[in-house]
Amino acid sequence: MKFNDAITLIDAGRHDLTDRWSPGSFQQFLLTHYHMDHVQGLFPLRWGVGDVIPVYGPPDEQGCDDLFKHPGLLDFSHTVEPFVVFDLQGLQVTPLPLNHSKLTFGYLLETAHSRVAWLSDTAGLPEKTLKFLLNNHPQVMVIDCSHPPRADAPRNHYDLNTVLALNQVIRSPQVILTHISHQFDAWLMENALPSGFEVGFDGMEIGVA
């Protein structure tokens, strides 16, 4: 995420962050939660050299493995609170509680002219989060959609049916699906998404004013 020439990495799921990003090329991390698939890139990165890297995220006292005990150059003191807006180099960020098996926040990322909702990982939205999004309509919604359409309600991650139902309420004009499973990927090879929905991919850029 780039705004005012500052780069923020949302989560750290890639194990090759040190290869992809040179020292000083980004300013901070914004974490949704501390499951391993979202923070595994922090483990080798913490032993690097250079300036301290702020890590913003939910107040999860356990974190993941020994990240808090041995943070290295990572600064985990920047915990955020639900619906309390904070600033990242001019970008307004609002943490949004999500429904997941570990304490998890989505985020509304807001400039003077646009709003992007980042909602992963979750299955359904808490009532307060849904009301907030209805009152702060996002032009773009990036959302966890791990599963193809299924008959039963999913746990921990959305399926396509529940994402479609959610956007009938929120009515975001652009919905980008992320956290795709192999099963959903196979389904997508044979099925089309409705207008306004697309699958996120590595290297994808979303331009907002």
From TrEMBL:
<dbReference type="InterPro" id="IPR036866">
    <property type="entry name" value="RibonucZ/Hydroxyglut_hydro"/>
</dbReference>
<dbReference type="InterPro" id="IPR035682">
    <property type="entry name" value="PhnP_MBL"/>
</dbReference>
<dbReference type="InterPro" id="IPR001279">
    <property type="entry name" value="Metallo-B-lactamas"/>
</dbReference>
<protein>
    <submittedName>
        <fullName>Metal-dependent hydrolases of the beta-lactamase superfamily I PhnP protein</fullName>
    </submittedName>
</protein>
<feature type="domain" description="Metallo-beta-lactamase">
    <location>
        <begin position="30"/>
        <end position="180"/>
    </location>
</feature>
<dbReference type="Pfam" id="PF12706">
    <property type="entry name" value="Lactamase_B_2"/>
</dbReference>
<dbReference type="GO" id="GO:0019700">
    <property type="term" value="P:organic phosphonate catabolic process"/>
</dbReference>
<keyword id="KW-0378">Hydrolase</keyword>
<dbReference type="GO" id="GO:0008081">
    <property type="term" value="F:phosphoric diester hydrolase activity"/>
</dbReference>
<dbReference type="InterPro" id="IPR017693">
    <property type="entry name" value="Phosphonate_metab_PhnP"/>
</dbReference>
